Amino acid sequence: MDRFPEAFKRFEKVVAVEEIETFMQLRLAFGSWAGRKWVPTERQIEALNVEAARLRLEGAWRRETIVVRGKPHVRYRDVRTGRFIEKPF
């Protein structure tokens, strides 16, 4: 994740990210640009999600761990609305 912002800056120079409207479009465009080096692991998707949140794209989400009745649960929160959503993928 340390080198991801550098790669995303190179991606922004090549691809017009202003025309991308949703997180899924960003994910597909970045995967196409990165080629075989793009393996959609949890860390890479979260790093891409951070960039999507910075760009304020629709469908961007944030993974959170909350405690309900003493047990940790993983939940996903929509960045725009702040509401919990179902698992994005």
Summarize the structure.
The protein is of the alpha+beta class.
Number of domains: 1
SSE topology string:
HHHEEE
Which sequence of strands runs across the widest sheet? 1-2-3
Can you tell me the overall shape?
elongated
- Report low-confidence residues grouped into runs of 5 or more: none
What brief labels describe this structure?
3-stranded antiparallel sheet, 42% helix, alpha+beta, 89 residues, single chain, elongated
Please outline the helices and strands:
Layout: H1 4-14, H2 23-34, H3 42-55, E1 61-68, E2 71-78, E3 84-85
Antiparallel strand pairs: 1-2, 2-3
What does it look like?
Helix content is 42%, strand content 20%. The protein is an alpha+beta fold and 89 residues long. It has one domain. A three-stranded antiparallel sheet has the order 1-2-3. β2 (71-78) and β3 form a beta hairpin. The protein is elongated and about 50 Å long. The model has no long low-confidence stretch (mean pLDDT 87).
